[in-house]
């Protein structure tokens, strides 16, 4: 074995010792990944008139990842969240949100790394449903919202098939507060921050 070959073998062994893998562990173009986990939703409401706030909630979530190339991927998450809204210590009611969403992600590390951080941006269409409560029952149904998403996170590949995903997103969501048969009181910004942890596989 030549000196150059020995150096290559030593370099590969050293990288393996620090937790790096061969390129087969990295994302590949045209690959679908599915992960299941938990998502914590923290609404960050701006409501200058009513002074509303909403409860933090944790829900199950399913993520779909489509790797277009080894650096670019698309992602969507499926989940329904229900929050309790209050103002001045009094309960206003409850409402559910279904945030239909799609983000495009850019991955910083080249193929061959177990640790794969990314940033992303995208859009959401959020549907409100199941308004309940003494105050909410007297309001028009919250209108749907279209807004942006900012995202950051990472995948950690256990092997060429299974991975851990940690993801943080900032949703921009707004809706109107309108009494039944009355004039609009205000437009509130919900703008939740979400933190997700999931385990998945690629196919």
**Helical segment count:** 1
**What is the structural class?**
mainly beta
The helix content is under 10%
CATH topology: Porin
Mean pLDDT: 88
Shape: elongated
Strand order of the largest sheet: 1-3-4-6-7-8-9-12
Beta content: over 45%
pLDDT < 50 stretches? 1-24
Total individual domains: 1
Biggest sheet: strands, sense, closure?
8 strands, antiparallel, barrel
The count of strands amounts to: 12
C-alpha termini separation: 38 Å
Radius of gyration: 22 Å
The SSE string, one letter per element, is HEEEEEEEEEEEE
CATH architecture: Beta Barrel
Structure in words:
- By secondary structure, this protein is mainly beta.
- It has a single domain (3-202), classed as Beta Barrel (Porin).
- Helix content is 7%, strand content 58%.
- It contains 1 helix and 12 strands.
- It has one helix spanning 3-17; strands at 31-42, 52-54, 57-67, 72-78, 81-87, 90-107, 115-132, 145-157, 162-171, 174-177, 186-189, 193-202.
- The protein has an 8-stranded antiparallel beta barrel with strand order 1-3-4-6-7-8-9-12. Strands 10-11 form a two-stranded antiparallel sheet.
- β8 and β9 (162-171) form a beta hairpin.
- The radius of gyration is 22 Å and the shape is elongated.
- Residues 1-24 have low confidence and may be disordered.
């Amino acid at each position: 074995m030549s000196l150059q070959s020995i150096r290559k073998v030593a370099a590969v062994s050293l990288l393996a010792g620090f937790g790096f893998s061969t390129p087969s562990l990295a994302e590949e173009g045209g690959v679908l990944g599915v992960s299941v986990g938990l998502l914590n939703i923290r609404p960050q409401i701006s409501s200058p008139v009513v002074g509303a706030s909403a409860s933090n909630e944790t829900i199950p979530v399913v993520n779909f990842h489509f790797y277009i190339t080894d650096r670019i991927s698309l992602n969507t998450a499926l989940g329904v969240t229900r929050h309790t809204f209050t103002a001045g210590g009094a309960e206003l009611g409850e409402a559910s949100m279904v945030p239909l969403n799609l983000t495009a992600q850019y991955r910083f590390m080249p193929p061959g790394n177990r640790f794969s951080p990314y940033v992303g941006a995208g859009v959401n269409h959020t549907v409100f449903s199941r308004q309940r409560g003494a105050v909410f029952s007297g309001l028009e149904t919250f209108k749907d919202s279209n807004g942006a998403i900012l995202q950051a996170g990472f995948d950690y590949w256990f092997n060429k098939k299974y991975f851990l995903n940690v993801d943080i997103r900032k949703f921009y969501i707004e809706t109107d507060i309108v009494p039944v048969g009355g004039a609009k009181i205000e437009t509130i910004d919900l703008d939740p921050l979400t933190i997700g942890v999931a385990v998945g596989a690629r196919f």
